[in-house]
Design brief:
This protein is of the alpha+beta class. The chain has four domains: 66 residues, Orthogonal Bundle (Arc Repressor Mutant, subunit A); 53 residues, no CATH class; 88 residues, SH3 type barrels (Roll), CATH 2.30.30; 75 residues, no CATH class. The protein has nine helices and eleven strands. The strands form three sheets. Strands 6-5-4-3-7 form a five-stranded antiparallel beta sheet. The relative contact order is 0.07. Pfam families: HTH_11, WCX, WYL.
């Protein structure tokens, strides 16, 4: 997480008189270019970072600089605390557990954050997904290749360079460079059946996550435009799931885009007879066929 890295970098600069960009890059498992971008971010935030050139050069803070209590306001620390505590529901992160206490100690500010809490974990605590997130986070931080067995129709082994953990909708993914496909792919964590570190490291590629690159590369499936008719009794549920903008109340239809795969068919069937697929026709035929198969299973 960039916020976590910036805070830890600030603490490191407070503890040391001078450190090189290369040392910072190795410490935080990022490129030297990323270190200089982080330094620019810190400078823009008002932290007086100085860069010295030459054989004895490096990066440091202005001598005698200390973060005073006005650096972070109580509300800002409260927001930071909320973000870090909520983050821990997704995966184990010892750094997230300690970084807030360090900032509070330096800033000498107390805050309360009990007014809101974001719990990302599903009901019943899916321990396996949390373990996968923790495992992949460690691989991302150390730029280590991971070998996975991925179930996508058929189970196939993949060698990936994990770059970013992504929560999209109600699911978690890892945005990775796939060495087999020689391209970035979005791998759904629930479909990863096995994963192990290879010991092989990689040079992290430049990815601008703020541009949401996975929206244009929705793993290995094409995105289809669906037109669905819904029963009036589930209108509120449809609004909650798809948004009022996607709904034509007069015709009682909803139009949306989703990736076509087995999950989509199961998702549509989960509405039972309360939703009918109008378009595209091939999806309608698949749902009809699967509904007949289900009926055959339950015939007595």
């Amino acid at each position: 997480m960039k916020l976590d890295r910036l805070l830890r970098m600030t603490m490191l600069l407070l503890d040391r008189k001078k450190v090189t960009a290369r040392e910072l890059a190795e410490e935080f498992h990022v490129s030297v270019r990323t270190v200089y971008r982080d330094i620019d971010t810190l400078s823009s935030a008002g932290i007086p970072v100085v860069s010295y050139q030459g054989a004895n050069g490096g990066i440091s803070l202005i001598e005698d600089y200390r973060i005073d209590k006005h650096f972070l306001k109580a509300g800002e620390i409260s927001s930071l605390s909320l973000a870090l505590k909520s983050l821990l529901t997704a995966y184990e992160d010892p750094n997230a557990k300690t970084v807030l206490e360090k900032i509070r100690h330096v800033a000498n500010i107390e805050s309360k954050e009990d007014y809101l809490f974001i719990d990302d974990s599903p009901w019943g605590q899916d321990v396996h997904i949390k373990q996968k997130r923790t495992f992949l986070k460690a691989a991302i931080e150390t730029s280590t290749c991971v070998e996975i067995l991925y179930g996508n129709g058929t189970d196939t082994p993949r060698m990936i360079e994990p770059h970013t953990l992504v929560q999209k909708g109600r699911s978690w993914y890892v945005y990775s460079y796939c060495l087999q496909r020689q391209a970035f792919r979005l791998f759904k964590l629930t479909r990863i059946k096995e994963l192990q570190l290879t010991g092989q490291t990689f040079q992290r590629k430049e990815v601008n996550v703020s541009e949401l690159p996975w929206d244009t590369d929705w793993y290995d499936h094409k995105v289809v435009t669906l037109k669905l008719a819904y029963q009036q009794e589930i209108r509120e549920k449809v609004e909650e799931m798809f948004g009022v903008e996607a709904i034509d109340e007069e015709k009682q239809t909803v139009t949306l885009q989703l990736p076509e795969d087995q999950w989509l068919y199961g998702f549509l069937l989960s509405f039972s007879d309360k939703i009918e697929v109008l378009e595209p026709m091939h999806i309608r035929e698949i749902i009809q066929r699967q509904a007949r198969n289900i009926l055959n299973v339950y015939k007595t």
